[in-house]
Design goal:
This protein has helices at 2-12, 31-37, 55-95, 100-113, 116-200, 206-228, 303-314, and strands at residues 231-233, 246-253, 262-267, 270-272, 275-278, 280-287. It is mainly α. Among the domains are: 2-11 and 29-87, no CATH class; 230-314, Nucleotide Exchange Factor Grpe, Chain A, domain 2, CATH 2.30.22.10. It has a three-stranded antiparallel β-sheet with strand order 1-4-5. Strands 2-6-3 form a three-stranded mixed β-sheet. Helix 3 (55-95) packs parallel to helix 5 (116-200) and helix 4 packs antiparallel against helix 5 (116-200). The longest helix has 85 residues, at 116-200. The radius of gyration is 65 Å and the shape is rod-shaped. Mean pLDDT is 68; it is low at 1-91 and 293-315.
């Protein structure tokens, strides 16, 4: 090995200069430095171990050692910072997923141990919890406001729907009553014809009586249909005159009937429920006069049609 080293030294060592200056100093040079200072001696298999450099190169060699040493010394520091970062990330990972009570316990232990790094991390985590809490409170308040508004809208819509349902039902009944009124008003002249025929026709033979019985049966069925439609006759004879139900066509004096009382019904009036279809045409009493007049005797025949009408009401 010594022979090999000496051979390497004699092979790669520089020649002495012609000035024959004495070598002022010697220096220990690493193979890498010899390789850099002697580019022409670059070899893949032979590396010198020792080299003597002149004084002019000693300062350069010394300066070249500094960056090498500083770079080598910096390596452990970088590794230390990486270790600290890994430790911090491990501590952050340890805090992740912990409950609030667990964080409080960690904070208490770190405070007692004087671990400022862990304390700052726990405080940051607690601030995150506080922000999350504020966000949840805000969401709860917004949701409560939406629920309240939804309830108010539901109550309002329910009230509107009830009003709409009542209004629709009222309109439906109004349309139905109007349709019934139109149909019944067209049937009222038939009732007048039945009433006139009842007053004028007096059956004498058996055949005429049979016809009259059939005729009255048809009229009775017709009256039952009208009653099923809630149609009723307006009371007139013997009742006080009511302008909302009666239509006065004549006034006569009467010794027996008071003033304002209806003494005769000339045309029947009808009601659809409580709604007036047609007012009754009547003759109203003026009450007794000051002197007896011949017209008092003429009032007696007028009572017979009223009597006949009452009989029809009974049927």
């Amino acid at each position: 090995m010594a022979a090999l080293a000496l051979s390497n030294y004699t092979l790669f060592s520089p020649r002495p200069s012609t000035s024959s200056k004495a070598i002022e100093s010697t220096s220990l040079v690493t193979p890498s430095l010899c390789f850099l200072h002697n580019p022409r001696h670059r070899s893949r298999h032979c590396y010198p171990l020792l080299s003597f450099s002149p004084a002019s190169q000693s300062s350069t060699v010394r300066r070249s050692f500094l960056p090498c040493f500083s770079a080598q010394d910096s390596v452990p520091n970088v590794n230390k910072e990486e270790d600290d970062g890994e430790d911090g990330s491990k501590a952050g990972d340890e805090l992740h997923g912990l409950s609030l009570q667990a964080l409080i316990n960690v904070y208490r232990e770190a405070f007692l141990d004087g671990d400022q790094k862990t304390i700052s991390k726990v405080e940051a985590k607690l601030k995150i919890f506080e922000r999350e809490k504020d966000g949840l409170f805000q969401k709860v308040s917004n949701t409560s406001a939406e629920i309240t508004s939804g309830k108010e809208n539901y109550i309002r819509l329910q009230a509107d729907f009830d009003n709409f349902r009542k209004r629709s039902e009222k309109e439906r009944l109004t349309v139905k009553n109007n349709a019934q009124k139109e149909v019944i008003e067209n049937l009222l002249p038939m009732i007048d014809s039945f009433e006139k025929a009842r007053q004028q026709i007096v059956p004498q033979t058996d055949k005429e009586k049979k016809i009259d019985v059939s005729y009255q049966g048809i009229y009775k069925q017709f009256v039952e249909v009208l009653r099923s439609w809630r149609i009723s006759a307006v009371a007139a004879v013997g009742r006080p005159f009511d302008p909302s139900l009666h239509e006065a066509v004549a006034r006569e004096e009467s010794q027996e009937i008071k003033e304002g009382i209806i003494i005769q019904e000339l045309r029947r009036g009808f009601l659809l429920g409580e709604r007036l279809l047609r007012p009754a045409r009547v003759k109203v009493s003026k009450g007794p006069g000051k002197k007896n007049s011949p017209t008092t005797n003429s009032e007696k025949p007028t009572e017979h049609p009223a009597t006949a009408t009452a009989r029809v009401d009974e049927h």
